Amino acid sequence: MGLANAVAITGPERIVLFGGIARNGELLMAPLRERFRESLLNIYHGRVDLVASALPEDDAAILGAAALATL
Questions:
Q1: Which one of 5, 31, 53, 58 is CB 3.0 to 4.6 Å from 18, fit for a cystine?
Q2: What sign results for the dihedral spanned by CA atoms 10, 49, 2, 65?
Q3: Could you tell me the CA-to-CA distances from 29 to 8, 26, 60 in Å, in that order?
Q4: Which residue segments constitute the domains of the chain, with CATH numbers given?
Q5: Rounded CA gap, 34 and 44, in Å?
Q6: Is the CB of residue 11 less than 8 Å from the CB of residue 41?
Q7: What is the pLDDT of residue 47?
Q8: pLDDT tens digits, residue range 33-68?
Q9: Helix 2-10 crosses helix 26-39 at what angle (to 10 degrees)?
């Protein structure tokens, strides 16, 4: 529900998760995506992807911080 609320405020096209959720693959991501879709406002259905990061966990946080620094 928190992710759906964040979408309503910021309107991203994709949310990338890393850490424990991403490491467990579809075991956690499938139910999370379902609940996310149920919580989204109708105008965002089919417009926002919820994906697991393909980066190694240690690199994801560093690269995210570096990307913010370039803005």
A1: 53
A2: negative
A3: 20, 5, 18
A4: 2-69 (3.30.420.40)
A5: 14
A6: no
A7: 94
A8: 999 999 999 999 999 999 988 877 667 677 778 888
A9: 60
